[in-house]
Amino acid sequence: MRIDLHTHAKLSKATDFSPAYYEEMIAEAKANGLNALALTEHFNTRNFHEVYDNLDRQYPFNGEYYEADGLRIFPGMEVDIRETGHILLIGRKEYILEVRQALDNYTEKGAFIPFDELMTLAERYPLLKIGAHPFRVSTPLHHLEAEQLRRLDAFDLNAKDMYEYGNEVNRANVERFAAELGKPVTAGSDTHQCLQYGSLYNELHRPCDSVAELKQAILSGAYELRVADSLPLQVKASVMLKKLLKRLAQLEEPTPTLADA
């Protein structure tokens, strides 16, 4: 089973969820050979619950994942912490939504939840907890104490960082960092649109029907990381496309009139 463990459903935090846009993303994920993905939308994106409300209308849900025309979508979210850094939480939808509700007072910059508090909250549920892009300059994790970081299950090898800092350098940094903490490394495209799917993913030795099985496969090392030769081109194209789409979205916004003033 080929799964991407770091993906988004929206172009940016500021945009609304578009079912048509996400259907295009799912089609491209399948076309790039993926069988599954974890949807780790930002916890403080605009109208977070709207994402899952729409998925409930779009695709059948079996209690563990959405069945999107042959692609499995496991629920999750990406959470900012006060110390700077992002944490991916993946699990059953009801657990993700309960944790999100508990974060209602922590969604604004400057008031994010401290790492230890987030871990204590997340550990109440059987979630997969991944430290996202630990060496990204803007949102690193390597500054936290080793004792804290060992509360995570794995660390994210991220397509955006592979492109930004170089495949070999970034991978060596993340793998060394994770090994020192005794943790595995997982792959995630971190895509916000369709072109980045398939650039970086995890190939599991067998299909997983639940997040519990997925977590066990990762902790037992029953998978391999796959990096596409086309990763630099895919990410570069994705960056350019995202800028263009955001610019078009701004142009389509209604022009204020005197009546709006």
UniProtKB/TrEMBL annotation:
Domain Polymerase/histidinol phosphatase N-terminal: 3-83
Lineage: superkingdom: Bacteria
Coiled-coil stretches noted in the UniProt entry, renumbered to this chain: none
Stored Pfam families: PHP, PHP_C
Protein name: PHP domain-containing protein
